[in-house]
Amino acid sequence: MSAAVLCRGVTRRFNGRTAVADLDLEVDQGAVFGFLGPNGAGKTTTVRMLLGLLRPSSGSLEVLGLDPIAQGEPLRAQTGVLLDQVGLYDRLTASQNLDLFGRIARMAPAERRVKVEAALRRVDLWERRGDHVSGFSKGMRQKLGIARALLSDPRLLILDEPTSGLDPVNIKMLRDLLTSLAQEGGRTIFMCTHQLDEAQRLCSQVGIIRGGRLVAVGAPDTLEGGGGAPVVRVQCSRPAAATAAALPAGATLDGPDAEGWMRVTLAQASDVEELVKALVAVDAGVLAVVPQRRSLEDVYLSVVEGA
Amino acid sequence: MNDLVTMLWKEAAEFVAGARALRFSAIIVVFLGVMPALTGVRSPTAAALETVGYVLITSVFVTAQSAPEMVIRERSSHSLETLLATRLPDRAIFAGKVLSGAAVGYLMAMATLTIQLVAWALTTHGWNWLGLSDAAGRWVVLGGPAVLATYLATVGTFVAMRVGDQRSAYLVTILSLVVLALPPLMHLVTITTTAAGLRDAVLELALLDAVLIAIGARLFRRERLILYLQE
After folding, report:
1. Is the ipTM of this complex over 0.90?
2. In angstroms, what separates the C-alpha of A88 from chain B's closest C-alpha?
3. What is the pLDDT of residues A38-71, one digit of tens each?
4. What's the total number of domains in chain A?
5. For residues A125-155, b (16+ Cβ closer than 10 Å) or e, as one string?
């Protein structure tokens, strides 16, 4: 499968400050990619480079097989965008806002009418089509922004913090919309977000950026990176003996709890065998050894906090 | 061409929907339209010269207000970055902004002219074409506001890219008229206040506009604008 987004050693500097450093990233076509990172990590700069709005200082970039700088116009024609600020035209109505983007996409008037209606109905704003956007709530604006991004049925959808600043009801509504978009398939979604549970639920791939560097990338369930140490949970019938075992170098042991479970943090994943041998050697009565899968939040916090 | 039409449609729809901008323009147009007729009866020649002055003033004030406002409004609503993220070419966005700003100034100047003609006819004895009566006069009355509005719209569009505040952008745009006064002051060109002399000045300004637009189209780049917005 060819990549929808391909970055090789992409770096962007502003007046000597490096916003994105040596970014290597590959997002498969049809993937829902979650781009995670704290504020100022380089997410927006990366999005701007993907859209051809900023030229990388060095490195190469390919989006939908196109060079965003040299082939910006055809690339942006196939891309739907919701930036961190929705950027609607407040003086225009909801319908006019979408109509404008239909015109920009060079749709014929009849096609435009059909697509604008479909997009507004999809986000439940058809009844408000004649209202000026200046009177819309934040949630309605986000929905209209997504409708606008989807209007021309883009191959790539870039969403920058789509649920940021919304109340819980609107967050759920937008998540449902994003879930249905993700389930439709066929379209690559590149989503910057702070919502880790959202990324865990929606994304097939995630990447974590910190200080301009991509520090972890992979499927949310199997993500490793940023120096997060492997952890196993061990249950022993004689935990007191286990605490006296000669653990592998660099390992630490927490517990046991009332049921004899202990949490062992290892220096490396291959130390599990050595750990089991050590426990057997002290006759700790090993009942279970369970690798502990770290949540996306664990990984995120460990890499972002530099642990 | 389609893209330019799209940009013009957008600017027109926004302008019409913006009551405040219309109100400002309407006040200027009505005031400058009836002023010459209310200040007393003069010879048609003197009135014709006044007509030119008032029509040009309308063009200057309305364009200096509307052209930067079209950009600043987009900056403050963050719609400019969204617009830059579309497939619209840089030149279409630039030309759309400049032409819209100039068109507003020009249309208002023509509204002023129309009001002046009607007001003159109502307050004196009969109809008079004022500055429009000869070919050179028509160049000045009809072409002068167009070239002046284009100059200010081009300058105003760029000023608004750097200056995010409406009032400051307006003042800087107005002050850019000083540049136009330099060549005559430095005796590089001579302008006479005859109809033919003013026509020549209009043609020279049209040439300057063409150069300015060509430079503007080269400088108006997405990356540059994004960096300005980032600042």
Report:
1. no
2. 6
3. 888 899 999 999 999 999 999 999 999 999 999 9
4. 2
5. bbebbeebbeebeebbbbbbbbbbbbbbebb
